[in-house]
Design brief:
This protein is mainly β and 748 residues long. The protein contains five helices and 46 strands.
Amino acid sequence: MSSFSPILAVMVLLLVPTVQAQDAVGLRGFVTNAETGTGLVDANVVLATLDGSLVTAASTGEDGFYRLEDVGRGTYLFRVSFVGYQTYTDTVRLETSDSYVTKSVQIEPSAQELDEITVEAEGGSAKLEAGKQRVRVADIERIPTPSPTGDIASYLQSIPGVVSVGDRGGQLFVRGGTPSQNLVLMDGTLVYNPFHLIGFYSIFSEDMVSSADFYAGGFGAEYSDRISSVLDVTMRPGNKKKFGAAASASPFLVELRAEGPLVEDSFSFLVSARQSVVEETAPQYLSTDVPLKFNDFYLKLHDSGERSQCGVSLLSSYDRGRIDPRSADTFEAENRVLAGRCVLLVPENSSLFEVTSGVSRYENSTGSGAIRDRSAKIFRFHTDLSATLPIGNTEWNWGLAAKVNQYSYDVGESFGVFDVEEDELFTFSGFSSVTFSPVSTIDLTPGVAIVWPTTYPMSIEPRLRGQARFFGENGPTINFATGLYQQTFEGISDERDAGSVFTAWVPAPIDDKRAQSIHALLGVSDQVLPGLNVSVEGYHRWISNLPVPKWSTLSRFTTVTTLAEGRSFGVDVRTTYERGDFYGFVGYGFGVVEYEAQQGDFGDWFGGGFQEYNPPHDQRHRVNATVEYDFGLAKANIGWQFSSGLPYTQVYGFDSFIDQRGLEQDPSEDFGSPRFIFDRPYDARLPVYHRLDVSVSRTFTLGAADFDLQGGAINIYDRSNIFYFDLAELRRVNQLPVVPYVGLKVEL
């Protein structure tokens, strides 16, 4: 505990009252779109003297909330601006009787772009702050996707540090972490698997997202129980002013959406339903089978007031299909999520409280017949309370949470250390962090997360994030982060079988040892020229108690597990250039992932019980490029991806194994069990991967409807990219060939 005392001491000191000066006033509120009533993220809020001199400024955060602290009493010019909206200007008088003033405003959309941006909006693919990136809707829609609406899944695959196994399966690996080590939140509630089997899509379509924060590592104390990455998505509310509807169709997907006010200006609904159609269209359209199907349904009810924003979201999704069209194994998965979230401003106080509560249920199964060979499900209920309290120039954040997980699985003997079980686990957690500036050029956010699963020891996890601006406000920014992370529940899957994504969620499956990781990140970002932004970030992770499949020579895939130690390290480089109608992005990622495991089978084959290897998501080089140009008559988007080959295990040949212990097999009648003769694990590399995607879209209006017509192609030069190599059948399985498409969206 002694190593954490400096952090805890700072937090205790911040609790001392009477920090704020007697003549200081706080100003806060919400900024919303006057046409829809939805909150605007990253709007610029400026307070100036009556002669125009700047006093203070801020940008809005989630739900359009802003806060200005330590303002002297008097009369000021209050201005709110946002690109594509009319500037709102008013005067505000802060009286001697005021402690905190609430001023919420609505601003009108405008076709004319603003001349002045006082506070730089967060976001953009090159805006990387110690692993954190604000994902904007504009970023999502730039990625060519075979439907008129973009998706977060396609966007995440276009940035460095994120590895996907292919256009099927929906598995994302972030800086060496596994899919089950990614924390995905929808309005504050966990979603176990948000990605559909068709790799272009998730439950987060472009039209439904308000904002998203993606942490590739180094995330703060408010996030716990995952050791790799965080995707924190806020879904947008429905239009509070008028009713609207939209429909879209493409060879991959059809979608219906409706929204509108239930009580004008305050209470709204938003509903969306999507159904994939590629399974039906592929035989004629692509001349190949794509036996994958998914659907999802989403509903959000949202209420807003002068001092509050509250919403309830309901999500249901379903996936079914064969990742390898020639395989008999069919995978099925279902998500059910109910999420409630309220943001509350305390009257006559500067505190902002956030309350979230929800349930998440996920189940998946796989097999070749009506009776599934393997099945697993997990259910979680959570309730969280967090608060933000400014004290002088320091911001204190704290939170408490309670969770209960119920899990069950029936996997036969596939996983070795477990086969059938049903149980539940209670977890209590809390966090505390402070944001302050010890000097004017450095911002620090130290914090600590405390997690107590009732059947495991309590973990105390210190975190630190910060940035330094040694070269002035317009110079390069140095970003850094470090922290300790532990994870109780681990998703166990057979990483050697790329044709299966079945996952069993289990708590610390071996010797009650929880997976653990230590992150270290250091980067620099800068606007080197007008419109040209560059960021470079290096990272290193130390991983321990990681469940991995044991080595096996049987001619079938197994997931008998053992514990491994590991590390991942690398560097991400991002560059964006945006001027006028042109936008360009180039990203490069270099990464290394190394595991070390001990087991007896290694000694049988290679003369030693320890084996170091690179797991199948160890991708050394990755290049992504995106270009968008608006010609006026139409808009063109181009995306190109290149990556070095992923590791796989070579096989020298086959033989038969006869178990003579107890004379259970008679060599004269039984030919034994087929067995692989393997080389060292993952000691070879698949061929390089590259793909070019193109789309052209045109938006026009007829009567009361807006039309968005889009055409393009995925893998336009028809590159034969390998998905995986089936060792049992010595058969290559490729990813999708060239996929031309035409899509249409109609919005009322």
